[in-house]
Amino acid sequence: MKFKSTNEIETIQLRDAQIKEMKLVGAGEVETDGEAASLKGLRARWLELYVEGAVVKDNNSQNEYYTDKYADQMEIRFKNPVIEAVLLEGHKYYDANDNLVEEVPDQKLAEDEYEKIFGKFKENYIFYGGKPEADKKCYQMIVDVDEDSYIVSFYYDKVIAGWNHFLNKANMG
Question: Smaller CB count within 10 Å for the chain: N or C?
Fold first, then answer.
């Protein structure tokens, strides 16, 4: 990759980026100690995310254009992720008079379903991608798949994003 950004995920906007592939590498093979050992969830060596349509913000160390720019295909690798949860987002249905008809709560998926769900993400779009806690190495994504939305929340040790080319200026207005 020509451009490589390390631990600057907050300077890369994934909203509306299309997922080409998302996979865990070495799931269940990682043992940790110290602070990371207290985190509960599925551990892996890497969580790899390949996307199109990511925006590299003007404050990214690799962006010398001083304006938000699209990147071509981007590879994002989270080292030692601990997936806290993958949720099938719930919903509420209302009738025309704004009366609640049905409420379905969020559903936490089993760890053995993660790879299958990540396979469903292919060719679908990220609705939200961000750090819910700015002072921690955590990340959360919401991915829309057909009529369902999935929330993926995880912690990581390091994140590396790589891409080969900048594309057009991103019009974020």
Answer: C
Asked if the model's pLDDT at residue 39 lies above 80, the reply is no
Q: Name the domain count of the chain.
A: 1
Distance CA 128, CA 119 (A): 18
Share of residues in the chain with pLDDT > 70 (%): 91
Distance CA 98, CA 100 (A): 6
* Contact by Cβ (8 Å): 51, 20: yes
Q: Across residues 13-19, what is the average pLDDT?
A: 96
**What percentage of the chain carries pLDDT values higher than 90?**
77
The DSSP secondary-structure symbol of 60 reads S
How far is CA 141 from each of CA 57, 64, 155, rounded to the nearest angstrom? Answer: 18, 27, 12
Residues with Cβ within 8 Å of 5's Cβ and at least 6 positions away in sequence, in order, are 11, 12, 56, 60, 61, 62, 160, 161, 162
H/E segment holding residue 33: none
Would you tell me how many other CB atoms lie within 10 Å of the CB of residue 164?
Answer: 12
What pLDDT, on the 0 to 100 scale, is given for residue 40? Answer: 82
Interatomic CA distance for residues 18 and 50, integer angstroms: 9
What is the C-alpha separation between 69 and 35, in angstroms, rounded?
36
